[in-house]
Design brief:
With 150 residues, this protein is α/β, with parallel strands linked by helices. It has one domain (3-149): Mannitol-specific EII, Chain A (3-Layer(aba) Sandwich). It has helices spanning 21-34, 41-54, 110-125, 127-135, 139-149, and strands at 12-16, 58-60, 63-64, 67-69, 77-83, 99-105. Strands 1, 2, 3, 4, 5 and 6 form a six-stranded mixed β-sheet that branches.
Length: 150
Amino acid sequence: MNITEILTKESVCVPLKATEKTSAILELVDRLHANNMLQDRDDVLRAVMVREETRSTGIGLGLAVPHGKSAGCRNLVMSVGKPAAPIDFGSPDGRPCSFIVLLASPLDKTGPHIQALASISRMWKAEDFRIAVMKSETADDLYAAIERQG
């Protein structure tokens, strides 16, 4: 799965204003809502927060992927952000997160949801991509890095 099939330039936030996990999730959900990508913002937010409370979505190496399945969206949607300062997501390696990818999908779209999670993970394993993300100073820079990585 190519991430740019579901990520739009308008859904990229650099820098995120948030300084902690909950506000980062809220900011990314609100970005999707502002771009008319959600049918029920509150339901999507609730689904992502319930998932986050169940188990932290900090992956490691500075990546967090908060996600949830909700009737509040009709399609698989994604927003990404790079906070001004890394945010603690309770990652197993103890590192705070410098790249946050929020994913929301309808309740009946498990396959695409899992494929998107796997694609994000594969991208993040590439050191050149992680470096490009860290060097990104604008939303356009970050989107271009994602586009190059595929």
